[in-house]
Structure formats: structure tokens, C-alpha cells
Amino acid sequence: MRRHRSVKIVATLGPASSDHATIKALFEAGADVFRLNMSHGTQDDIAARHAIIRQVEEEVGRPIAILADLQGPKLRVGVFADDEGVDLVEGQTFRLDLDPAPGDATRVCLPHKEIFAALEPGASLLVNDGKIRLKAKSCAEDHAICEVIVGGRVSNRKGVNVPDVVLPLAALSEKDKSDLEFACQLGVDWLALSFVQRPKDVWEARDLVNNRAAIMVKVEKPAAVTAFDEILAVSDAIMVARGDLGVELPVYAVPPLQKRMIRKCRAAAKPVIVATQMLESMIESPLPTRAEVSDVAAAIYEGTDAVMLSAESAAGNYPVEAVATMDAVAREVENDPTFRNVMDASRGGRRETHADAIVSAAREIAETTNVAAICCFSQSGTTARLIARERPHVPIIAMSHILDTCRQLTLTWGLHCVLTGKLERFKQAVVNSARAARAEGFASETDQIVVTAGVPFNVPGSTNILRIAPCEERLIFSTDPE
Asked: Looking at the structure, do residues 141 and 178 belong to the same domain, yes or no?
């Protein structure tokens, strides 16, 4: 099944999309990657959804990526004597402390000593997704006296954000470590890390993953924005988690940050997802708002690898319609001549290796001659991502004999992934490329394709050959690989 677009769609699974029929319908509507949110549901629920995805993958004959999203540490206030909570008034004093006793209008427990260890006078604390804003006036090891800057009702176990300081908290809680091991044993392709503040958080997760999955960092903390270049260097992919970013940073700061992060990820040839509230109204409505469609379109014009649905596909009333809408928006944008102009003008990234030169030449040949597709063979996926970074005008067929590589690459812009046999000679690569281009509907007998590969075969990072090859019948059905 060929997608008639290059940007990828990530669909989150949940109560509204847990059965085989719905998951298959989501794939057929356009979902390329399925996200399993470890914050919701039991490990048994996650395992059941994983099994269904793999069953659908076998039925459709296309690699499908599975992304397990770890919850991360959750910072919450304690409980109140009145279960309905209390109303905080602007200007009043409010105390946060370690005392587990039920709270009232003057104080409440904040059972996170790490916050008090890092707080300084003047730091902001945001409660209930930023609806309530406190400012620390004085701090101690076990409490903080705060002034209410923006008031409102606070009730039991509402979330707390501390945007102004780097908290001495690991990105992986004990639950996350358990979920990480569980997801790796299941065989997920990507692991998304929450609460990342520094490169060290990524390395700690990578040690536990031990090459069993690729690592994606969710950028949702101001500290991660500050250290973005260093975090990107040690990550395999990035998710722009705009929900939490919009809580901890001014909402008007998020769009330019999104644009800059997308450009940096593209230059590094690493996939980037734009996430959160993309088609939020479709949780309850069969149609999106015009603003939501413009938001999705803007991310695609910026060159993102993927756009993501969260509650829209996990818990909404119209999960399949949400995916179909996103697919329709993507195809419309990519058919706009302005989109091609933007992609060409924003092409960047350093060219330092033989592989860089090969993929750049492949793109130029495809754009100046009558070539139907670029076919690349990749052991680790690096060459395929480098070709995707070029944003060529023609389709990219990414071929590998490693199923895990094919699955991971389905997240990357423009890559149509095909599992192939293990190759020993370049002639086999040419033959397999021509067969795949014909079979997958990218080329006809009279077309030509560009083939890139590396000799010796099956060695990561060895891309060093480029050839323009015909797709004619005699080549495809040749029985002699030489």
C-alpha cells in the first residue's frame, strides 16, 4: 500500500482504538506509526495492542513502527481536607511542604523533596496545567512559602510544573524502568523519553535499552530547549511536545521553537514529530476547525517528518476520521508548488562524507533526469535518512534485510520501506530495486530509477555506489544475479 504523501502520521492507541478492526482501519486511513502511551492502561493492555499491530503488519505486508511513550516522573500536590479543593486568591500566601496531612486554603503537601532542593526565591510553580501560578518567596529543605500570582481552584493531586529550574530528578522513574524493560522485551521500535532535561538523561535510558530500540526525546521542558543541540546529538529522534512546552513557556514562544527544532533535526538527518492538540476538536467532532487544519499544514510546510494524533485517535469519537483528515491535509499541502519551493530553499546540513555526496548526487540526478524513484539499501538506516534529509522530488524506497531497520525508518519523511533479502553483490541490489519499484507502483517498465548502496554489503556506513538503472522486464526477471 503506497502512501501518496511524504510526511508520516503517528496515531496513539487507547480505549477508542484497541480492537483489530479499528487498528487496521487506522492503518488503511493513513497511520504509519502507532504510539502506545505507557501513562494509560496496564502492561497487559499494551501487550494486547502490540500483538494486534504486528498481526495487521503481517496482513498488509508493510513494516509498521511501534512507539512506546514512557510516562516520566509526575509531580503532583497532595490531597485537601475538602475533596472539592480550595480557591486560591491572587496576592495571598500559600505554603507547599512535605507534611502529608490534608491541605487547606493556606497550605498543601508537595511530596517531592527534590523540588525544594532546587527552588530559589523568585522561581515560578505552575499548578493544574499552568492555570494557577505561584512564585516562591522563601525556600527551605522541606517547604516553600509562595505568593499566588494567578489564582483559581486547586484540588487533589493536580500536576505541578517548575519551569525556572533544572530539577535533580532522573527522567526515568521506577515505573518507567519497569515499562522500558517490558516494552523492549515486547519488541517496540521506538522509545519516547519524558522529562528529559539534559543529555545525561538520554544516556541513562540508552544504557538500559541496550540497542533494543531507538531513542526518541520528548522536548517538553525549558531545560531541554536550552540544551537542545546537545540532546539532539545523543538522540535518535525528537518529539516537539507542545502541550507541556506551552505550560512551562509562554505559548507564543512555542511556534518559533517548533520551527527551529524541526530545522535542526532535518540538518542532523534525525526524525522529528510535531505533537499535541493537532486536531483536538475531532475528539468530539467529525470535522476539525480551520485553525487546526492550518496548524497541521504549518508543521508540514516546516518539513517535519511526522505529525501526531493523541486523544483524537486514542479516546475520541472519530479516530479513523481524524487520521483520514490528517492524511488529506498532508496530500493537499504536498501537492502545493509552494511546498516544493519551501523544501528546496530550506535544504541544509553539512556534507562531509562519501554517503553525503552520494545522496546529494542522487537527489540532483532525480530532479534533472526522468527518474521515477530513488532506491537505497541501508543496514542501519543512516543512508535512507540522509536521502530523506534532501527532500527529493521523487519517491524514496528504503530497502533493508533487517526488519527492525525497516520498521524504524517508517517514521522518517518520504521513506517507503521494503524488507529485502540479504545481498552480496551490487547487481542483486539493482535487480531487487527494479522489482520493488515496479511491484510497489512507483515505476513502470519504461522508467529509470536511481540505486544507492555500499560495497562491501551488510556493513553499516559503507554507501559508496550510485547507479541509474532501467526497470525493464528483462532486468527484473533475470535469474542470473551477475
From this structure: no
